[in-house]
Amino acid sequence: MDERARSILKTLVERYITEGNPVGSRALSKYSTLDLSPATIRNVMADLEELRLVVSPHTSAGRVPTPQGYRMFVDSLLTVKPLAIDVQTALSGGIQREDPNRVLSKAVNLLSSLSSFAGVITAPKKAALFRHVEFLSLSDRKVLLIIVTPDGDVQNRILIVEKPYTQSELTMAANFFNQHFAGLSFQQAKQRLSEELHQISQDISKLMQAAVNAGTEAEESQADGVLLSGERKLLDVSDLSTDMERLKKMFGVFEQRTALLRLLESSNRAEGVQIFIGGDSSLVPMEEMSVISAPYQVNGEVVGTLGVIGPTRMAYERLIPIVDITSKLVSSALSDPE
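The structure corresponding to this sequence follows.
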């Protein structure tokens, strides 16, 4: 594209983001810095349509950006705005060095409130290890499995067993388990257990197998460490709320989270802010949705991703620096002081 077409596309996307209505040649003539007649602009818009960067809705002579048009806009035409003072103050004042869980919670809430869309953060995955386990009899058929992690977290799981165990048998099983498997993940313990079965009576081995199965499920349940805030704000976005199927698909993304996790984890491998636009990126499951994300670090190591989820018609020039600064503040708050 020549500079004339680039300038018109830039103006068209900016006006559509601001107003939400198809942009016609007269509006482009008024807001564009180019001294062009409406007729000339119409010809350029026809060229942009052939390139599949804009499209004309059925009810209007104006055009709206396609996902490819948004992609060209954010990659090469966007002018990022400096953060407003009040936004800088909200971010720097809200994200301070404190308990990591509070840092992430405050950050995701700020991303949502400052964007008016949904904020998202993937929490660092904890090492799936255990320091020791205990067994406690609850009834003839139920045993409480108590899992203590190296950092002192405690999880409980109820095991349904085939036979009653005395407390002395449960204590003996816990001692064997801790002696042989402490410091491993339950997945590793599960693999090693088959090698150790010859040392254990058949009854106790069944209890051990039930324990490692329950522990493995506990590990897997922690894998989805996604914090979300402000999903309901998307109900106020006209681009989404006027179509029930779009809303169902959007909230399906939040509930299932598999596609969302895959998208966010791909950001971990990149540097700086990444922009995923529905219809343009295969990682975004719906055309009307965009994600602005950035990785954050702890002591120089990338451990998670944060960002904003909203409609494709969002103020990218304002939200990109919000996501960028938030990732830097979170990284600083979670890392050891220099």
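The radius of gyration is 27 Å.
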